[in-house]
Amino acid sequence: MSSCFNGGAGWPEPVVRVQAVSDTCGETIPERYVKPPNERPSTTTPQPAASSHGISGPNIPVVDMSMPDSEETARAVEAACREWGFFQAVNHGVRPELLRRARSSWRGFFRQPAEVRERYANSPTTYEGYGSRLGTAKGGHLDWGDYYFLHLLPSSIKSHDKWPDLPSTLREATEEYSEDVVKLCRRVSSLMSKGLGLDGGRLHEAFGGEGGEGACLRVNFYPRCPQPELTLGVAAHSDPGGMTMLLVDDHVRGLQVRKDGQWITVDPVPDAFIVNIGDQIQVLSNAAYKSVEHRVTVSAAEERLSLAFFYNPRSDIPVGPMPELVGPESPAMYPEMTFDEYRVHIRQRGLSGKAHLQSLQSFRSAASS
Length: 369
Ligand code: OGA
Ligand code: NI
Description:
The chain has helices at 18-24, 41-44, 71-83, 96-110, 114-118, 170-195, 202-206, 279-284, 339-349, 355-368; strands at residues 4-5, 15-16, 62-64, 86-90, 129-131, 146-153, 214-222, 234-237, 243-248, 255-259, 262-265, 273-277, 294-296, 304-312, 318-319, 337-338. By secondary structure, it is α+β, with helices and mostly antiparallel strands. α3 (71-83) packs across α6 (170-195) and α4 (96-110) crosses α6.
């Protein structure tokens, strides 16, 4: 099949783009994309039909960021991080024009002919570039989505050669977007620190301080799917990094967040960032803030694009519960580990629920007993 490419060294089997599958599969999706019955969207949670008419069920909190220095904003961020691990940030200071430009540039990349996209095919050693799977287990289930992954910080590992050169607006839009979103991450980091009862700069310091932070971007493209009830765009996972700033299509739902055992569908506020806690902040906060499982459903009617900006601790410094948060009443829940070490496991096994963080916790109990 011409839509079959071997994405270079490292993949266990030829890589097939979901975009090509979507174009050629007709009414039935290939077996590899069919999730086990208990993971399928339709069987786990009946979606409240009302939510598409504005009468929605529970939803993640919305936080107004127009006054980032106010006590009230810090309290709103804190409550969201403790209870939900997720919130939508509005009035966040990143210009709508830039959001539009970033989205349309990346949509433009996924609309390029396959030959152009394949120039950037990735491998599982670094994952940088155009990809269609995470993890290298042969024969495993696949998600209904393609992506592009690239590094932004530290600037020593940023390389424009690994970014698409088409459409011509993409590199500049991505640069500008990155600069503004990093600034937003710093503001949010300060609010999260204060919410833990710490100095505003404490979390930033734990991330490696000035020039230490890491950042990368994963642009997800979910083509239309003839059987959305059988598959997922991204299976349930928590984000391995520090925090995530997600920009989604305003008009297509897809993101679901796990809350008290239920999957809650996020109703995106136009031009908001969906902010969530990743595993590294769960560890640093000694589980005061939750890195919550989420997943993505796909649609038969519409494709969907999202930009997931991951803001991470410097990758070679130990990350463990911050000492101020540890005491006789609240012993450290996790051992120290660098983000580089943490990522090795994820890259081999792929993302899978919260299994990795839980395995660290059991490591601690075993080590201390
Ligand atoms: C991710 C993710 C959600 C979405 O890329 O980690 O959770 O809506 N994406 O695309
Ligand atoms: Ni995620």
